[in-house]
């Protein structure tokens, strides 16, 4: 491919990566600060563990994975790119694979946690705990880190389709299946709760209705976040399948143009998650808003309001 076409594409992708990495680092860094300070003393639920893990992972995406991929784009613009694969050099490929696979599994855990909370509320309140959630997150990190480092074993193992399917394809399909089940669980639970509320009166009816609205709002928020994650990951999966099963397309102009934008799109989800969680906190009761006054703590106030739904 001629350099007059290659250089502008690499520069455009690099600019997008710089923007996305900046958004991911700042937004998720602020969210981690809020989680650490815990202004409302309400971060004691298992779902907060998964949200914190996603925020930390997205923060690392902007600070570690992003610069590695940007380095690959710089080599591309200078004409010194030595790798023809989609992920580029090992310096960029290993962190990118770890980030994407871990985010995929953490989103799966978050969706499964919401499914249990909606479909089995009594069992969920008895069995869910922060310690169990931390154990699950730790298992995911060990699993994905082991498979990501196994890429150092050699190019033959790194290019094995089975390895890609175990890390990305199977968890991705499971994520979609769990969210489909979550949609049906919400509908079934709404009908069941409506029938139960018809027999209640006064304060009991009001309390049960508010509790149902909290769970529903948090579940819908989770589904929207996961849906955006799935959409942002689809281009990466498409080009990875093409790279694995049709390597002859690597030399095509269209494949080069599109593949250089894929990583920029994948890193987009690192920035939107924290921002979206903040936007979802604006419709909470005024008694929570009065706990945080002043323009300097606007981010803390809005983020803490979201976690009020959990308590």
Structural write-up:
The longest helix is centred in the last third of the chain and has 44 residues, at 202-245. It is built from twelve helices and no strands. The protein is mainly alpha-helical. Helices cover 80% and strands 0% of the residues. The termini are far apart.
Gist of the model:
The protein has 12 helices and no strands.
What's the arrangement of secondary structure elements?
Blueprint: H1 3-37, H2 46-78, H3 90-119, H4 121-127, H5 130-149, H6 155-158, H7 161-197, H8 202-245, H9 253-266, H10 268-279, H11 286-289, H12 298-307
Helix pairs in contact: 1-2, 1-9, 1-10, 1-12, 2-3, 2-5, 2-10, 3-4, 3-5, 3-7, 3-8, 7-8, 8-9, 8-10
